[in-house]
Specification:
With 97 residues, the protein is α+β, with helices and mostly antiparallel strands. 19% of the residues lie in helices and 14% in strands.
Length: 97
Amino acid sequence: RSVSFSPDGTTLSSGSEDGTILLWDMAPYITPQTPNPDFDGDGTVGILDFLIFVEHFGVSQGAMEYDARYDLDGDGTIGVSDFLIFVNAFGKAGSSN
């Protein structure tokens, strides 16, 4: 008997003594990561993070200045929806980068 996850964690495989191998799709059970706007890594989302964020505001994927760290919703543009995510996290503890 054995159980193993794929490297990306989206598939679970199990093998039994009779030789049966089952594959399980785990993607529906994976919790999406919460964006972390603690860009300066000091443990709190604050004014320095805001100043870093606004330098990238309005930039879209494909532009040389684009950096996915600031695209908090992952839609390819650092815009208003990313700003709203940032505002919601402002003043709260951030996770370490």
